[in-house]
Design a protein that fits this description.
413 residues, alpha+beta, 8-stranded mixed beta sheet, 5-stranded mixed beta sheet, 16 helices, 16 strands, 21% strand, elongated, binds adenosine monophosphate
Length: 413
């Protein structure tokens, strides 16, 4: 017996229905904001992530699924932003349309230790707005994330935002942190001990209690921000206020990746337990240039679909109200049933029948399980009279309908 790889999931029919629903809603919301879908490959050159996310990040150091040898290695993508940025540059989208609003959904891969809400293959629902430095797009992105959650009927989440500042400000913050943490390395967890050299900013959002204690005594605030970045952040906050979007400024929020600059944000939900981030994102003004592309400001975010589904209140959903279930009893009736199914499908009516030779009672039970809206029964009697028995599963009413006027009869139901 083969088993699925730990940290991966089979999404069975009952659940894939929920996924489709979420995807449908998100397409509607993205289109309200004029984002267009982009589909990028699942494998990329590993170097793309090294260059974008940063060689010292946990994802690149420990979590990439690599195929092949070092220099030519390919990677199963751990996230979408780097791929979208690569595609923007490679396809000359800067020349074709300049500012581009793109969304995507699909599987991402990280070799993490699996636990609740943490998988090795998970799915992102994300978007990127590339080609603008305007603070208004940061506001739009957070508002879009907020509206997506509302459209998914998710509440009880918190939006946290911060500004890392430009590349120079980030460097400043890194130096200050190294200076201030120098005498306290012994009190940090083993991971942060390593981060001190490689990526000291990560110490700020480490979840380890002893690191938190040390970090919370430090006054981070906005002192690392230059005047321009301070202004940008002030405009983002004012924009969110004007849209009445609730948020919390968390100066310890850094997000681990090298490409982030200025605004970063994370959306948390208590219902998730220790892996409490529903989604996250921010600005990455240097990434396009870093990858050999144009000087283009950009911002984006990604939600984890599995986590969205973990906290989404599960209202009972009517699955297939309009399904017509055909029960044909006997050889001849089955032949007639096939023709009826064909006609119904050609008329755009969703329908199905019993392929397991069930009794009338068994087939009715199946129709119920499928939440069919209507059942059509074709027995010997019906065949003789050229009719079918049409049963409305909601009201229980049933009547005979001439086979040739079945579609009109269903339209009138
Ligand atoms: P990140 O790229 O790490 O900021 O991830 C964005 C979102 O993807 C997170 O907020 C989670 O909702 C989701 N996510 C990240 N890693 C995983 C994982 N290993 N398993 C499930 N969801 C994840």
């Amino acid at each position: 017996m083969f088993k699925r790889v730990p940290g991966t999931k089979d999404i069975l029919q009952e659940e894939s229905f929920l996924w489709q629903n979420l995807e449908r809603i998100s397409r509607e919301i993205f289109s309200l904001y004029n984002y267009k879908e982009i589909r990028v490959p699942i494998i990329e050159e590993a170097g793309l992530f090294d260059r974008s996310l940063g060689g010292s990040t946990e994802i690149v150091q420990k979590q990439m699924f690599l195929i092949g040898k070092e220099k030519e290695a390919l990677a199963l993508r751990p996230e979408g932003t780097a791929s979208v940025a690569r595609a923007y540059i490679e396809n000359n989208l800067d020349k074709r349309e300049g500012f581009a609003k793109l969304y995507y959904t699909g599987p991402m891969f990280r070799a993490e230790r699996p636990q609740k809400g943490r998988l090795r293959q998970f799915h992102h629902l994300g978007c990127e707005a590339i080609g603008s430095y305007d603070s208004a797009i940061d506001v739009e992105i957070v508002s879009l994330a907020d509206n997506l959650l509302k459209a998914f009927s998710i509440d009880g989440y918190e939006v946290e935002i911060n500004s890392l500042g430009c590349r120079k400000d980030k460097k400043e913050l890194t130096l200050t942190l190294r200076e201030e943490l120098k005498g306290k390395i012994g009190g940090l967890c083993a991971d942060c001990g390593r981060r001190f050299e490689g990526n000291v900013l990560r110490v700020l959002d480490c979840k380890n209690e002893s690191c938190r204690k040390i970090v919370r005594t430090m006054d981070i605030g906005e002192r690392h921000l230059c005047a321009e970045c301070k202004g940008h952040f002030a405009r983002v906050k004012a924009g969110l206020d004007s849209l009445k979007i609730k948020y919390l400024v968390n100066h310890y929020l850094v997000r681990g990746l090298d490409y982030y600059t200025r605004t970063v944000f994370e959306i948390k939900h208590k219902g998730l337990g220790s892996q409490d981030a529903l989604g996250a994102g921010g600005r990455y003004d240097n990434l396009l240039k870093e990858l050999g592309g144009p000087d283009a400001g950009a911002t984006g975010f990604a939600f984890g679909i599995e986590r969205l589904l973990l906290v989404r209140s599960r209202k009972p959903e009517v699955r297939s109200q309009n399904l017509v279930y055909v029960i044909a009893l006997g050889e001849e009736a089955k032949k007639e049933g096939l023709k009826i199914l064909d006609n119904l499908r050609k008329a755009g009516v969703s329908c199905d029948t019993d392929y397991e030779n069930k009794s009338l009672k068994g087939a009715m039970r199946k129709a119920n399980d499928l939440a069919a809206g209507y059942v059509l029964i074709i027995g010997e009697d019906e065949l003789k009279k050229g009719v079918v028995t049409l049963k409305d599963m909601k009201t229980g009413e049933q009547k005979e309908v001439k086979t040739e006027s079945l579609i009109e009869a269903l339209e009138q139901c």
